[in-house]
TrEMBL record:
Cofactor requirement: Ca(2+)
The name this protein goes by in its record: Arylsulfatase B
SUPFAM superfamilies membership: Alkaline phosphatase-like (SSF53649)
Lineage per the UniProt record: Eukaryota, Metazoa, Echinodermata, Eleutherozoa, Echinozoa
Domain Sulfatase N-terminal: 85-259
Keywords of this entry: Calcium, Glycoprotein, Metal-binding
InterPro entries: Alkaline_phosphatase_core_sf, ARSB, Sulfatase_N
The organism of origin for this protein: Stichopus japonicus (Sea cucumber)
Family: Belongs to the sulfatase family.
GO MF annotations in UniProt: metal ion binding; sulfuric ester hydrolase activity
Length: 416
């Protein structure tokens, strides 16, 4: 939205506070995974409602929160068929009534239902509603009415870009309906809406991240810095209509929701996030000083292999990246071959060089060393890698629990 020449989201673009410095993962699904796991670990008087699509197998913990949506990936957005099976659920039961309903519209319908039920229940506990759309994303399916509105724009080419715009327009309309439901049910005055993308757009889908360098699956700003906004009557006058450029990481949303907005505590959960609610509400500097995007080789020391000499790129990204103040470090590794050659070390001052065009690594070796050491400090907190590829895995007591830890013989640690 931020960098498009066209007004794609005419409704949600009327935001209160534009958030420009949020860092996510270079892949899909980071928000879903981060929030889902933490919600399961914490039940602190917050009514949790999840309307979402997950790009992985069903999780046995899903019954701990009210949830609806898709549990698999690569699904048809109308039929909801994923890998040969119908995949649209309402609290662990197949919801056949949504067959043929476009997923974004189905999610919006369910979200409105959740809001109305909460309002009618007179429940005094805070409600957390997580609404995760599949759009804009492949497959580029969208109701014809949302494509037709872009037919008259001769400069919107090719057809795939019209479909991309159509998906965004549909999402815009659904968000508008959800906000109207909050207002109609007299919940808006005590509500905070946070809208955020999950990663940069991929070029093959005609997305544009200009002026940011890179795209989805890269560690450049075009892959990890995402647009978003916060809209709420609870924000102070000082931030109305302003842009917040402070550093926020994906891990910060959970403590911001629980501690900052709901008045709860997260001390029972081991998290890396920081409560940034005061920064958003009053425009004060962000307490976040640095953020590790990927630990890669800095943490593993050697390739994790899937019975071959090549990287298991499904389960691990061999690249390292960290943001600290204005500095951004990327340690590039070949993601198909084991690291037998020196890595490409890139250092940018993203405050002065948002396009990441000038590598400052050679003249700032002390900063490079400091940032690499900071990554290794984070590595001490990491847990074993989970791989869906290995054939050697412990027997699960729950048939729904897929995946496992890699056997030690697949993890070769060395001195880095």
């Amino acid at each position: 939205m931020k960098y498009s020449r066209h007004t794609l989201a005419t409704r949600i673009s009327h935001c209160t506070l534009f958030v420009h410095g949020t860092l996510k993962s270079q892949f899909c699904e980071p928000v879903e995974e981060m929030l889902r796991e933490q919600l399961y670990d914490l039940n602190d008087g917050v009514e949790s409602q999840v309307v979402v699509s997950y790009d992985q197998e069903p999780d046995p913990n899903l019954n701990k929160v009210e949830n609806s949506g898709m549990l698999g990936g690569s699904s048809n957005l109308f039929s909801h068929i994923s890998h040969g099976n119908y995949d649209f659920w309402d609290h662990n039961k197949r919801a056949m009534k949504y067959k043929g309903v476009y997923s974004a519209e189905a999610y919006g319908e369910k979200a409105v239902e959740v809001i109305e039920n909460h309002a009618n229940s007179k429940n005094e506990n805070p409600m957390f509603l997580f609404l995760s759309f599949q759009v804009p994303h492949e497959p580029q399916q969208v109701p014809p009415s949302y494509i037709n509105k872009w037919k008259s724009y001769a400069n919107v080419k090719p057809e795939r870009r019209k479909k991309l715009f159509g998906q965004i327009s549909c999402m815009d309309e659904v968000v508008h309906k959800v906000v109207n439901s909050l207002k109609h049910n007299h919940l808006w005055n005590n509500t905070v809406v946070i809208f955020s993308s999950d990663n940069g757009g991929p070029f093959r889908n005609e997305a544009s991240n200009i002026p940011l360098r890179g795209q989805k699956r890269t560690h450049f700003e075009g892959g990890i810095r995402v647009v978003g906004f916060v809209n709420s009557p609870l924000l102070s006058d000082e931030v109305q209509g302003k842009t917040f450029n402070g550093l926020i990481g994906i891990a910060d949303w959970f403590p911001t929701f629980i501690e900052g907005m709901a008045g709860g505590q997260t001390d029972r959960v081991d998290i890396d996030g920081i409560n940034v609610w005061d920064s958003l509400r009053y425009g004060t500097p962000s307490p976040r000083e640095d953020y590790v995007i990927s630990v890669g080789e800095e943490c593993l020391g050697a390739p994790v292999r899937n019975n071959t000499k090549y990287w298991d790129t499904i389960g691990i990204d061999p690249r390292t990246s960290i943001r600290s103040g204005p500095w951004k470090l990327i340690v590039q590794q070949d993601d198909t071959e084991p690291s037998t050659k020196p890595a490409d070390v890139l250092l940018f001052n993203v405050d002065l060089d948002i396009t990441e065009s000038t590598n400052l690594a050679e003249e700032n070796e002390d900063i490079v060393r400091r940032l690499r050491q900071r990554v290794k400090e984070y590595c001490s907190k990491t847990v074993p890698i989970v791989s869906f590829k290995t054939k050697h895995f412990p027997k699960s007591s729950n048939d729904n629990q897929k995946g496992c830890q890699l056997d030690e013989k697949y993890i070769r640690r060395g001195n880095y």
